[in-house]
């Protein structure tokens, strides 16, 4: 039986409150604990390190309760920060983040630069969000790039991406690595680029309605240098808002336009509830979602 050398995961997006689509969960911390418990069990079975390709937290300024939760339930791991882990998506401000608190506490070993960390029969090079990926020039084998940036292939994305984000053989920066382990795109996929395997981890948990058919996974690095897809099971207990198939994104609606409308209210704060209600009626927001939003601002719909 082949031995597992390492576990790769990405986009945990630990959060104090659930995303709207999962808001019917009675205890969001229990849901997250269940998922992390499964990750820890995989680590215990194989007795190998975990590497996370970014976005440990959903917000860089997560509250103390969530940080304490992570300190208790998150398995110790090597990691790089994603944009959600960074104030203003700025790597230079990492020291202000909840991610960095876990680093200082020893829960996370931060991978910095291209020097790499040596594992059993492999070396992992970490490139955080915003960090340029350096192409390897040496011919030594078993080098892995751990990156966090949006990359795209057909049928594995939310929208078509620019050419520079498409996963093709033209991406010279991936040269010299046996495997590129990527985070950010929550849809898992893998693709061979010549001799390099590009492996996008995908989301650790289902958070939005367009992920309803998605089954979360982690990657297992085998001793022969191959990657094995390990599907998770904790998602089977997920609870989520039912969504009209004809409009499967309304439970995750973009509130940008609503925010712009609210800016026009100036100091007329008493109009806030009216503005929210009108926006939801204008876009035919489902009643379940309306109730959640109105409840969050302290009124009944």
Give a description of the structure:
By secondary structure, this protein is an alpha/beta fold. Helix content is 22%, strand content 19%. The protein has helices spanning 28-46, 64-73, 98-104, 256-263, 272-282, 287-296; strands spanning 4-9, 50-52, 77-79, 108-110, 117-119, 122-127, 143-148, 179-183, 189-193, 196-200, 217-222, 227-231. The protein is globular.
Task: Give a count of the beta strands, DSSP E runs of length 2 or more.
Answer: 12
When the domains are counted, the total is 2
Instruction: Give the topology string: H per helix, E per strand.
Output: EHEHEHEEEEEEEEEHHH
According to CATH, what is the class of the largest domain? Alpha Beta
Structural class: alpha/beta
Gyration radius, in Å: 20 Å
Cα-to-Cα separation, first versus last residue: 58 Å
CATH architecture of the largest domain: 4-Layer Sandwich
Biggest sheet architecture: 6 strands, mixed
Q: Give unreliable regions as ranges.
A: none
CATH superfamily of the largest domain: Metallo-dependent phosphatases
Give the DSSP E fraction (strand runs of 2 or more residues).
15-25%
Shape: globular
Strand order of the largest sheet: 4-3-2-1-11-12
Can you count the helices?
Answer: 6
Chain-averaged pLDDT: 86
Helical content, roughly? 10-25%
Oligomer: single chain
Identify the notable features of this structure and list them briefly.
globular, alpha/beta, 19% strand, 301 residues, Purple Acid Phosphatase, chain A, domain 2, single chain, 6 helices, 22% helix, six-stranded mixed β-sheet, 2 domains, 12 strands
